Amino acid sequence: MQFPESWLREFCNPPLDTQALADLLTMSGMEVDELRPVAPPFTGVVVGKILSAAPHPQAERLQVCQVDAGSHSPNGPLQIVCGAPNARAGILVPLALVGAELPPAPSAASEGEPKPIKIGVGKLRGVDSHGMLCSAKELQVADDHGGLLELAVDAPLGQDIRQWLKLDDTVFTLKLTPNLAHGLSVYGVAREVAALTGSPLLRPRIDAVMASHAHRLPVQVLAPELCGRFSGRVLREVNTKAKTPAWMVERLARCGQRPVSALVDISNYVMFEYGQPTHIFDLDKIDQHLVVRWGHAGESLNLLNGNTVTLDEQVGVIADASQVESLSGIMGGDATAVTDDTRNIYVEAAFWWPQAVQGRSRRYNFSTDAGHRFERGVDPAGTVRVIERITQLIQQICGGQAGAVDDQVLQLPPSAPVSLRVARAQRVIGMPVTAEQCADVFTRLSLQFTQAEGVLTVTPPSWRFDLKIEEDLIEEVIRVIGYDKLPATAPLAPATPKVQREAHLHPNALRRRLAALGYNESLSFSFVEERWERELAGNSDPIRVLNPIAAPMSVMRSSLLGSLLQVLRNNLSRRSERVRVFEIGRVFMRNAQAIAGERSVAGLDQPQRLAGLIFGNALPTQWGERDRAADFFDLKGDLQALLGPRQPQFEAPPTADLHPALHPGRCARVMLQGQVVGQLGELHPRWTQSYELPQAPMLFELDLDAVLQTPVPMYQPFARQQAVQRDLALVVNASVKHDALVQQLKADPDQLVRDAVLFDIYQPSQPSAGIAAGERSMAVRLSLLDEQATLTEARIDAAMAAALQRASEAFGARLRG
Question: 122 - beta bridge partners?
């Protein structure tokens, strides 16, 4: 919301300077995002009148003007050489006198401290020039540099241009939250200032315009859940070619609005003034009548912005007997737009239900000031008053004959009373407040209320859509009293830290471990491209976002891998050669058995996952090792370090459980204590090519809850005896997995075999002595230890024989010859 300070002070003028007023609004919740002067400082510029303009004798594009500056030219007109194309006799323009200082050009700011431009007596092509005639751009009050700034004919000669154009003004830009819809107008902000300061609020008197003809346009509202109130009036014989007054153009410009035509400017002016958007139809282009209804599938509408949109049953429209004419609460159609040939018009002001407008603009990839207001809530009680106001301005500027106002009230928002308990307000605010203070706040805010013992019951006015619960009233009390009145009191409640379970890691511990391994954390949106879900997660029915912030972010993710791949692509586009990233985040999946709770939604699972990606060289460039691309085993080693002291197992997944994002021959399931907790592997070649990656990255994704579980450290004394190591080279079937073989070797009932480590695999390409086709040799080093006594050769041989026997019985293993 942007507006000039002078307009605000016409409604409420508190005894505060500009900065104090801005601070007051910010502290009340209406954050002032920017304060900007209307024009930069300059001096010596007055209103001048060109008496004559003759061609320069030495230059085709210059003119020698005689300019009357009133009291500033006592010796007669000033001779000024000017090159503006619109310089001509009879017009009033800004005149920079000799000695004036104009603002420096914006480009001068890049060259150090800018200095003002000083005007002196000059000579252009041999002709003296006693001053300078100025354009709007030279004064930096507008971007127009096509010629001199032409002033109104009633501008007094010689008056300081800053006074005449009211350039000693400040533009306020408010950054309003969606609940502050009542602040989307100058009058609405003034109403807040009056409540905050106690200064009187000027309530302009708007008299009803007497009807001078009986013509009415039939309007039928078929959807009261779309439009709760519809007001309109016919005006005949309107001069649409009339020029918008300079004062209105100036105010609209300071609200960030470019002038279009008189009728459009009047409509915009009233919207900024009172917050009620309106629309003006060309009456003669309307076929018979208007109908307010929901759209029909397949209908289309050519909008005023040149777009053609396709409608459906979820979009409200205004139609006539033959076609759709307007998008309800958002934008009018081109078919009934007002032009210079328009003579008869229909002015409409309606209350559109916020939920009927919300999200419709975004669906068509544009936004409007009207839609911005209607989707937050516009005062339904103000439609007729705004019709009268806009009629006054139209007749004042464009003339015309007004008909009677047609007002249909169908369904307005209920004003449900809200109660405030003074005792609860004290607890929430954190300082003593009395019932009298609360009553004073509500009175200043023009809220109707009743008072009982310790309780005030407020009936929200029609312009306050944000007063729904007791906490809303408590907020009103403290923001009007002033947040600066809150005492700086230290908390009295005991601060008891929550005891962290030893068997449960905090996610920050995982973050620190991954950072120590060289990973950087990534934070991504939970909504992603549908393609990622279909290709990388195998999810053909993802959870869709009803109102996505962007077209690619249309579904909720069920895997973090797509987000990490996008991070990789962004880094590669910036010439990163080595990328190691991870993300801890929530994923979203359908589950009919999920029930609703404080942190859950019925029918949806929202588990947290830990995922990571490595790409490029395994190690940073160094002298000690040659560059080598990171592979599966580098990632496996990182997971072993991350999950320690637990010993994760890695096994090839069955064909039915292959991850759609991973290479089927270079991936594995991650298991902890026999439970599958995730997957790791190389990106599938198909997606490596599809996502235009120079080489395949390695990825992993784990269930966060399972990863956070950790065994409690247990004390174990050092062994007093020396461990003994023996090697076994066993021939087994090639399908035997080394983990299973190692587990059998370690399953010693006497607990002498403490560890078994695979250190060699040999599988000849052709059958050889001792190893048949389909077999391979696996060499395992066994560590044997008895903590109470030194192992003898007899006990060692017996333990090795028993280990061989267990492997033979389980897998048919035999010693390699």
Answer: 129
